């Protein structure tokens, strides 16, 4: 929309530019509103979705993340669906457990937590 408006503003008279700018601006805010509603009501804090194919079996994974305002508790949730079966699990820890003294995220620790949650869900499936 911005590209269209820029192109038209180079070609058209100033009176018509206002109409094009108004239509593009309104369209932008309508599209952003629809996208925000989709994220709130359909995705529901989902940060990653994947399909895992393992020995002719297919699992659908959905990972989500949540931290409430003014709270130190961070929750990482995972859910899978496979041929009518499903499972879910979550980890809730203080966010300070994942951050060092310099304010850097400790990636190996986060990876270990994600791997442990994954392994726990796979074991519970069998």
TrEMBL record:
Protein name, per record: Signal peptidase complex subunit 2
Annotated compartments: Endoplasmic reticulum membrane
Entry membrane topology: Multi-pass membrane protein
Lineage, highest ranks first: Eukaryota, Metazoa, Ecdysozoa, Nematoda, Chromadorea
One of the record's GO molecular function terms: peptidase activity
Pfam families referenced in this protein's UniProt entry, alphabetically: SPC25 (PF06703)
Membrane-spanning residues: 20-42
Keyword vocabulary terms for this entry: Endoplasmic reticulum, Membrane, Transmembrane, Transmembrane helix
Free-text function comment from the UniProt entry: Component of the signal peptidase complex (SPC) which catalyzes the cleavage of N-terminal signal sequences from nascent proteins as they are translocated into the lumen of the endoplasmic reticulum. Enhances the enzymatic activity of SPC and facilitates the interactions between different components of the translocation site.
GO cellular component: signal peptidase complex
Record family assignment: Belongs to the SPCS2 family.
Highest taxon of the lineage: Eukaryota
BP GO terms, sorted: protein targeting to ER; signal peptide processing
